[in-house]
Design a protein that fits this description.
Keywords: Disulfide bond, Electron transport, Redox-active center, Transport
CATH class of one domain: Alpha Beta
InterPro entries: Thioredoxin, Thioredoxin-like_sf, Thioredoxin_CS, Thioredoxin_domain
Number of strands: 8
CATH topology of one domain: Glutaredoxin
Number of helices: 4
GO molecular function: protein-disulfide reductase activity
CATH architecture of one domain: 3-Layer(aba) Sandwich
Shape: globular
Order of helices and strands: EEEEHEHEHEEH
Strand content: 25-35%
Strand order of the largest sheet: 4-6-5-7-8
Family: Belongs to the thioredoxin family.
Protein name: Thioredoxin, mitochondrial
Largest sheet: 5 strands, mixed
Length: 155
């Protein structure tokens, strides 16, 4: 998120200069952008439909025990197709307005989960309902295919 502040005494927006915006720094609470020494803006990107899996118990709690159907995106940072599919899938899940949620699992961080769910290539996407895998696909899909995949999961 970008925020442009306006000095009330000026009658127009100040021009953006390279000094006005510095490189964003990641912090535990979100993104911190320092505009000048006197102003620090904290922003947080909250997604109610997509979350990253932290560990095995987190997966059990948020995916297996979920009452809401879950799309599980097994991906890797080094995977080009994952970088295309991930945002596309997030967008389609967000359009379902909470009828389905999305869990993102980095296979390099969670090899045990990848093995348990027989992930042999990335991206692999599982559709889970009541703790059971009800559908699955490997590779990139277009928006129409993703919509059909989600509709089938939601029912």
């Amino acid at each position: 998120a970008s925020v442009i502040s306006r000095n009330p005494s000026q009658g127009r927006w100040p021009p953006l200069t390279s000094r006005a915006l510095q490189t964003p720094q990641c912090s535990p609470g979100g993104l911190t952008v320092t505009l000048n020494p006197a102003r620090t803006i904290y922003t947080t990107r909250i997604s109610l439909t997509t979350f990253n899996i932290q560990d095995g118990p987190d997966f059990q709690d948020r995916v297996v025990n979920s009452e809401t159907p879950v799309v599980v995106d097994f991906h890797a940072q080094w995977c080009g197709p994952c970088k295309i599919l991930g945002p596309r899938l997030e967008k389609m899940v967000a359009k379902q307005h909470g009828k389905v949620v999305m869990a993102k699992v980095d296979i390099d961080d969670h090899t045990d989960l990848a093995i348990e769910y027989e992930v042999s290539a990335v991206p692999t996407v599982l559709a889970m309902k009541n703790g059971d895998v009800v559908d699955k696909f490997v590779g990139i899909k277009d928006e129409d295919q993703l919509e059909a995949f989600l509709k089938k999961l939601i029912g």
